[in-house]
Design brief:
Keywords: DNA-binding, Transcription, Transcription regulation
Structural class: mainly alpha
GO molecular function, one term: DNA-binding transcription factor activity
DNA-binding region: 38-57
Protein name: TetR family transcriptional regulator
Order of helices and strands: HHHHHHHHH
Radius of gyration: 20 Å
Number of helices: 9
Number of strands: 0
Number of domains: 2
Strand content: under 5%
Helix content: over 70%
Domain HTH tetR-type: 16-75
Length: 186
């Protein structure tokens, strides 16, 4: 029996490869086009049909959670460092992730609105609460800042990113916001 030369459906044998292709495409397209990129674009980019995408990830949130869980894993690893500079590293990486992929924040906002038991915001707040006191005790961060202040600053930086008309504005505006928020005694 000869093959028709077309793409061969490998069925379940390709499941793990398909899943990884979907995750890789989703990570890239969420970064490039935002959280609301059409799922059909992700499936096409991954080289799979939409049915395959939905078999692996029944909802946009399921896909986003899987993609962005890696981000939380990075933040949790940074926060696990017992050093006084863990907060600074956590804050910098949080900002980098937000600049690189505002979709991470968009996903969290969507999850908070649609899933009453979503804990992403609590997870980030816990990481900040665990690291901020050490930085403050070492004199690295103004002692008046609270975890809620840090989360507010993050929302402000996200606002700068989300409302920038020209992508070239983002870097300087985020740098300015960082400067304003980091001034001791401000």
């Amino acid at each position: 029996m000869t093959s028709s030369g077309g793409r061969v459906n490998r069925g379940p044998a390709a499941a793990s490869e398909n899943r990884q292709a979907i995750l890789d495409s989703a990570r890239r397209l969420f970064t490039e086009r935002g959280y609301h990129v059409p799922l059909s674009a992700i499936a096409k980019d991954a080289g799979v049909g939409q049915g395959v995408l939905y078999r692996h990830f029944p909802t946009r949130l399921d896909l986003a959670f899987t993609v962005f869980e890696e981000n939380f894993a990075q933040l949790e690893a940074i926060a696990a460092d017992p050093g006084a500079d863990a907060f600074g590293k956590l804050w910098e990486r949080t900002i980098q992730l937000t600049v690189e992929s505002a979709a991470f924040v968009e996903m969290a906002v969507d999850a908070r609105r649609t899933m009453p038991d979503y804990t992403g915001g609590t997870r980030l707040q816990t990481l900040i609460q665990d690291t901020l006191p050490r930085a403050q005790a070492a004199g690295l961060i103004d002692a008046r800042f609270t975890a809620d202040d840090v989360l507010l600053a993050h929302r402000m930086i996200y606002g700068v990113i989300a409302t920038a008309v020209d992508p070239a504005e983002v870097g300087p505006a985020v740098a300015r916001a960082r400067f304003l928020l980091s001034r001791p005694g401000a």
